[in-house]
Write a structure and sequence with these properties.
This protein is α+β, with helices and mostly antiparallel strands and 271 residues long. Helix content is 34%, strand content 28%. The chain contains seven helices and twelve strands.
Length: 271
């Protein structure tokens, strides 16, 4: 009996040791840092999708636009280019926003946008373009992409312009690439203009001149690093997404280009 009791105690002790080892917390495995170059190229792919759709719709209607009805059909078709498209516009040869879709923004038809930088560029040199961020006459901050239109005699007849809600792009890119929730994506031009951000209110602001950013010295210094090199890494302190708390963010950036305009695409790890 004593031998049996000893065996029982030994088996119980081994079981306890085994359970104890199984219950020990496994060391946390750090998730790899997402490749900002991959995310930047995916962001570019979204912009190219919009640009390609504009070109495709124009080609399909080349020389066939003879009435307002034709133009409105073209605009309605082009508006479906991407979920981030806000409005589809026809701008005439004098820089007048002649027609646009959807009907919710119809009150903006007839607006003179000839003084907008991208409209001036299109009228002077009709070529595919992408604008900087700006406040549209429709009332929202946006980035516009457009291409020239020509009539049956190959004479410049205005342009097809799509306005884009670039605040919709960061989350779409992050989700597609299965990036952890601890990251955010934004983009600025080399002069500091914010052209893409999950926060709509930041689109169209300048990192180096807007009061929102001026009190954050580390962000200013980070911005200078970003404009000085097409790619790199650094850190800055700024408000956590959706909060007033200022936190330190580790960030990486890369550069994309479309129609001659550079975007510095920044991947920041949320504090």
């Amino acid at each position: 009996m004593k031998k049996i009791s000893v065996m029982v105690y030994v088996m119980l002790a081994l079981s306890i040791l085994l359970l104890s080892s199984c219950n020990k917390a496994k060391p946390e495995v750090e998730e790899p840092i997402p490749e900002v170059s991959v995310l930047a190229q995916d962001l570019l792919a979204n912009m190219i999708q919009i640009d390609t759709a504009i070109a495709t719709h124009i080609e399909a209607w080349e020389g066939k636009i003879t009435s307002q009805e034709d133009i409105r059909v073209l605009l309605a078709e082009a508006q479906k280019a991407h979920p981030a498209v806000l409005t589809s516009c026809y701008v005439d040869t004098k820089g007048i926003l002649k027609y646009l879709e959807p009907a919710a923004y119809k009150d903006s038809e007839g607006a003179d946008i000839s003084k907008q930088a991208h409209t001036i560029a299109m009228l002077q040199n009709p070529t595919p373009m992408i604008s900087t961020a700006f406040k549209a006459v429709e009332g929202f901050a946006t980035v516009a992409m457009g291409r020239p239109l020509y009539d049956a005699k190959e004479k410049f007849a205005g342009s097809l312009v799509l306005t884009i809600d670039t605040s919709r792009l960061p989350q779409a890119v992050l989700q597609k690439n299965e990036v952890a929730s601890g990251y955010e994506l934004w983009a600025m031009e080399p002069d500091g203009m914010i052209v893409c951000d999950h926060d709509k209110d930041e689109i169209g602001l300048n990192l180096f001149t807007d009061p929102m950013y001026l009190e954050h010295e580390s962000l200013q210094n980070f911005g200078k690093l970003v404009i000085a090199s097409p790619k790199g890494e650094g850190e800055y302190r700024f408000k956590a997404a959706g909060s007033e708390e200022v936190v330190t963010k580790k960030a990486y950036w890369d550069t994309i280009n479309i129609h001659g305009r550079d975007w510095r695409v920044v991947l920041a790890q949320k504090g």
